[in-house]
Amino acid sequence: MSDEFLTLATLIGIAHSGVRLATPYLYAALGEMFGQRSGVLNLGVEGVMLMGAFAAYYAVYLGGDPWLGVLAALATGALMGLLMALISVTMQAEQGISGIGLTLFGLGLSSLLLKVLVGAPVSVKGFSVWEIPGLSAIPVIGPIFFDHNVLVYLAYLLAPVSIYVLNRTTFGLKIRAVGQNPEAADSLGVRVNAVRYATVILGSALAGLAGASLSIGLLSIFQENITNGIGFIAVALVYFGSWRPLGVLAGALLFSTINAFQLWMQVLGAPIPSDLAVMLPYILTIVVLAVGVKQIRQPAALTKPYERGE
Amino acid sequence: MRKFSWSLVIVLLASLVFAACAAPVAAPTAPAAESAGGEAAGGGAAAPLRIAIIMPSSITDVAWSQSMYTGLKAVQAEMGGEAAMQISYTENMFNVADAATAIRDYAVDGNDIVIAHGTQYGNAMFDVAVEFPETTFAWGTAIDTGADKGLSNVFAYEAQAQEGGYVNGVIAALMGDSDTIGVVGPVEAGDAKLYIDGFVEGVKATKPDMQVNVSYTGSFGDTALAAEAANTHNKAGAKVLTGSAQQVVGAIGVAAENGVYWLGTQSDQSPLAPEWVVANQLYDWTGVIKDMIAKREAGTVGGTAYSLTLNDGLVIQFNDQAPIPDEVRAAAEKAIEDIKSGAITPLK
After folding, report:
1. For residue B196, how far is the Cα from the chain centroid?
2. What's this model's pTM, rounded to 2 decimal places?
3. Which ipTM was obtained for this model?
4. Are B17 and A87 an interchain contact pair (Cβ–Cβ within 8 Å)?
5. How far is B37 from chain A (nearest CA, A)?
6. Do residues B65 and B90 make contact, with C-beta atoms less than 8 angstroms apart?
7. Spatial separation of the C-alpha atoms in residues B233 and B213, rounded to whole Å
């Protein structure tokens, strides 16, 4: 057993698990990144994920196609985002506190809805694994990257799309301007709060999708508090990735690959106490956060509500 | 100032919604006078017996919390429904400070029996138990009835989970055609560790060469990581899996998707994957609950430490929808008899 550590099959297994585990983190963290780049810290990701996860699950539970579940998750997430934007942008509530409120709200409401509408959770038929023809046959690369459900693929496509939107479109320019210097953006005719509404709603829709990637993707079931802290890790990953899509992608992959690594080490019977093994991803994330993150890249207006000084 | 008050409103609203579903659901607030009387008399003939329970997860967790709730409902039905016994419950009390408040609230509200359904609630429960000597408290997994603290109103309960674990291990060793078995553990402690250690012993006693891979997620509720652990075990060659705590719903889904057998514990997990859940070790708490009620009515409000065993309270339930060969079932039933008779004592 111990002599079999880190064979090629194991390495492929770790990478394959890591790629899949990163999915909910990617949606949630990339979505959160948009909000933060425009100056809004949304700590409600966890609650939005739970609501999205339940909405998707319930749509499929009622007999809907998984894609209908995706739509339900996006719409529910967007609605939660609208609520968050109303509270934090229009009413200018302290962002951290309102985000925690949103998380509690989502946790409570999703549990309540499960009890009232479904009762005891049962499995549903969500997205199955779809091996991409051709690509999945490539040795090593194929089994790692092209042997997943469709929500996993979409999560990775979201990274380049985010880079493009943020850096190559007018919308992206406005987001960056509003997050860096809202007064200047305003004076140039950018509607600061409108941009922030857009990013918070977009981010929350993606958080809803993150939830769906669990409930009708990886797990095919909904359970109270199914996210178990993923939303908060996602917020940390935005800092970890220095507010850049590639950084977020790297962070999500690092975190989940280490998680996959520790699972494999336990499964293969490596002589590491399990308590220590499960701490590994967190310890490493903290270490990288402490030494690697360039705070200088933090959007200057992050957490600061904008009020026109007329 | 404007900003601050809005935040407060939001947080208050959110906690209201949260509280709405975490709060006691079936608790009709009895008039104070009546509840005081009930407390003193230990539940008279007229007033229904009132039992309250605080749980770390939900009544539908397919695991630990559900096992006790199912037991309470069964006893309630047997006693004659709501008129004879009322159940109040608070779910998802993963925060011990909140649980402490709930325990106190239930005691103040005049419940006859307050069950703190988690080892982590022990200290909080003992604090309240001192103040309400007429109220019966119960907690588990535990064996400490607080006698050394001078308390006589506390029951403790636990399950000898290694017994059913051993039987499940025997079944696992004989099911499937692989030489590897995977275990999706939550936290390496308490009930889960007993079950898993017993399971491994059962496997090894049946097939000494069988490889049993054990992993822990470090959490009772990390459903996503438990699912990935199941995937990993499967990749590592396991064709039979087991696991513990409410996190396993994710792992059972993966087992069904990959066509891998599952052995359940704590509650009936068959509905999650009817064709793949071969057998479950059920925790049947009805005997414990009925005995606590009987003792209380006879004037003894605590002091007993209960232990579920295959002789009393632990049940191996075979799922008729999953194909289990006759010889496997026979081997499992032999293991059950051997444990009952004392011929085998798991983890001895």
Report:
1. 15
2. 0.87
3. 0.88
4. no
5. 34
6. no
7. 7
